[in-house]
């Protein structure tokens, strides 16, 4: 038989093999199509699909495969196709003996092992390792962080500075209260005509105020003095409003970026434990999960809309 005739015959045989797979196996199950190199080299893929669940172990399977090709004196087995198990166990000339350990697993453990192997990039990982590392499935990484902190009693004092947070809205409202309270004190000084105290405190439009004050000191006409005082009051009211808006922004940024530093260390309004219990304080679960991942202690695997969590043991 010529080489081209062999190739043509093998192509036809390969097509037959795929059709036979559908007819013999029906639904997907672990199986191997067993031929021999001798037959293949003669342009034939004569063989059979062997269902692996029919054999107790690798040796039992090989015994059946050799029996299938007993028409050859010393058959060199060729596994021409496979179905229903991970490719890492398959080779054209051999099968991994660990395949039968995989076959003994139920569907849940098979899935767990596949996810774990993909994550750790170690094809020799065992189901025991996967089970030990697996910490469960969660809706999100943040969901895991909330769960683990609840289980372990919450943040430690060392962690609070990193993971306590305040929402943008709460930070803005708190900053408004702080700035408004200080502005009220300035308006009281203004009402008492303590202009220097006002402008020294806020340092806004101070040069304009000093120019008006010099003009006031030099003026002798009482009506003109009253007009200048009115200008000073208007300038002060405008300046306090400008200062209040800027103070709100500055305090808001401080609170958002470092609530512990602002409320505990700088202002002394709260002690750490009380701040952690305040209604406006939240835990930044996203940052906690991110740092856990970056530390290498935890791996998150997204699968089918869930997050599978593994500890890196």
Description of the structure:
The structure is a single chain. The chain has 313 residues and is of the alpha+beta class. The chain folds into 3 domains: 3-104, no CATH class; 107-157 and 285-313, no CATH class; 168-279, no CATH class. It has 15 helices and 8 strands. The protein has helices at 3-25, 37-41, 58-68, 99-103, 107-120, 127-133, 141-152, 157-163, 168-191, 195-202, 206-218, 222-257, 259-266, 272-277, 285-294; strands spanning 31-36, 48-51, 77-83, 134-138, 164-166, 281-283, 298-303, 306-311. The strands form 3 sheets. The protein has a 3-stranded antiparallel beta sheet, sandwiched between helices. Strands 4-8-7 form a 3-stranded antiparallel beta sheet, with helices on both faces. Strands 5-6 form a two-stranded antiparallel ribbon. Helix 7 packs across helix 15 and helix 9 (168-191) runs antiparallel to helix 10. The protein is rod-shaped. The protein starts with a helix and ends with a strand.
